[in-house]
């Protein structure tokens, strides 16, 4: 198992950043690191989404076409997801 590209914790044990997981092994690796929530800013394949569900990883696909032009209200679901995971789960990944 190997990490997704550029994986790093920005807040140890709580918030991580990386590229999108591209293999089942990368999803398994994330789970082994304590990741229990994934906020996807880029699309992932169906196989990756299924594996996250199998591993009990809460996943929010949050793909905006132009984040720079998104109204502030459009960010509320992503912020709520991160806040909930900050309170409930060991770690959340944003990619």
Summarize the structure.
With about 100 residues, the protein is of the alpha/beta class.
Largest sheet: 5 strands, mixed
* Rg from alpha-carbon coordinates: 13 Å
Shape: globular
**Secondary structure category:** alpha/beta
Mean pLDDT: 89
* Alpha-carbon distance between the two ends: 18 Å
Strand order of the largest sheet: 1-2-5-3-4
User: What are the segments in which pLDDT stays under 50 over at least 5 consecutive residues?
Assistant: none
The number of distinct β-strands equals 5
> Which fold name corresponds to the CATH topology of the domain at 1-63?
Protein-Tyrosine Phosphatase, Chain A
Q: Top keywords for this entry?
A:
globular, Protein-Tyrosine Phosphatase, Chain A, 5-stranded mixed beta sheet, 22% strand, alpha/beta, 95 residues
Describe the structure.
The protein has 95 residues and is an alpha/beta fold. The chain has a domain at 1-63: Protein-Tyrosine Phosphatase, Chain A, CATH 3.90.190. Helix content is 33%, strand content 22%. It has three helices and five strands; from the N terminus they run ββαβαβαβ. It has helices at 24-32, 46-54, 76-88; strands spanning 8-11, 15-17, 35-40, 58-61, 91-94. A five-stranded mixed beta sheet has the order 1-2-5-3-4, sandwiched between helices. Strand 1 (8-11) and strand 2 form a beta hairpin. Helix 1 packs parallel to helix 2 (46-54). It starts with 7 loop residues before the first strand and ends with a strand. The relative contact order is 0.25.
């Amino acid at each position: 198992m190997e990490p997704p590209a550029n994986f790093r914790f920005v807040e140890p044990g709580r918030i991580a950043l990386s590229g999108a997981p591209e293999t089942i092994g990368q999803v398994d690796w994330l789970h082994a690191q304590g990741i229990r929530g994934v906020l996807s800013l880029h699309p992932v394949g169906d196989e990756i989404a299924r594996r996250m569900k199998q591993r009990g990883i809460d996943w929010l696909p949050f793909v905006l076409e132009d984040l720079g032009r998104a109204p502030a209200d459009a960010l509320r679901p992503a912020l709520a997801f991160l806040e909930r995971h900050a309170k409930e789960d060991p770690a959340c990944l944003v990619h």
